[in-house]
Amino acid sequence: MRKNLCVCTFLLCVLPAVGLGQPESILPAGTLLGCTLDEPNFSSKTAERGDPILCHISRIEVFGRPLITQGSYLSARLRDYRDPGHFVGKGWIQLEFTSLTLPGGVFPLDAKVISAGRYKVDGAGKIHGRGHATRDALEWSIPILWPVKVLTLPARGPRPAFKGETRVELRVMEDVAIPPNATMRSRLAGPVERF
Fold first, then answer.
1. 93: buried, middle or exposed (CB in 10 Å: 19+, 13-18, 0-12)?
2. Pick from 41, 25, 31: which is nearest to 74 by CA?
3. CA-based, 20 to 30 A from 69: which of 2, 5, 16, 63?
4. Looking at the 3D structure of the chain, how many domains does it have?
């Protein structure tokens, strides 16, 4: 009897310390994540394919408990782009989100952009630039502006560019398993050094 009591006491003390019995949190596929790109000017003119970009996340709760805390961020890369044409064709840019960084670790993520500020986003996650079709039609209808329009005709249209704090909405494409201690900074870790 005494032996069973000692074993039970030992297990009750050791299991919470090890973390067994605490289930993983799941960020389910289809969850919408909102984040903010904090870039002064990110476009196909200022970046190349593969260049990294960070997107800061606000707090997200699942079943009434915080799953992603404020200060977490998503890492992305410039996957592909097309510059606008000289005469026709709008430009587009595509971001590939690869990981979710929480205070307790980095987790792989597969997410697709569904909304990006004032730009239109297609089903493949490409962010399309805005053309000047209305402005051009109006300027071509005024004969006094024709010499200026003829001179600017070979110029390219505007590129999609993220300036300042741009809000981006994402859809998580696959479930992400997050351990229970990943949202809290480890108590054993020392103070954060600033450079």
1. buried
2. 31
3. 16
4. 1
